[in-house]
Design brief:
By secondary structure, this protein is an all-alpha fold. The chain has one domain. The protein contains four helices and no strands. The longest helix has 12 residues.
């Protein structure tokens, strides 16, 4: 299932706009199918989209877990 935020994701629309090949690889891994392993999705689904750091990469699950642990 495609991530519900894919089309409006600021990470891909801002950070990755000049790197389309890299963006497509990340999208295939984190945005299409099981998005539960995407660090951005993890934070957004638990704390809200406004709490997702702009510089958080989808692969930074350790950082996402730190953010989530600090919000308790």
């Amino acid at each position: 299932m495609e991530c519900p935020s894919l089309r409006i994701c600021p990470f891909f629309n801002n950070k990755m706009k000049d790197m389309p090949a890299a963006a497509e690889l990340l999208k295939k891994r984190y945005c299409l199918g099981d998005n539960s392993q995407c660090a951005r999705f993890m934070v957004a689904s638990r704390l809200g989209k406004e709490r997702v750091p702009a510089d958080l990469f989808p692969s930074q699950t350790d950082r996402a877990k730190e953010i989530l642990a600090g919000s308790r």
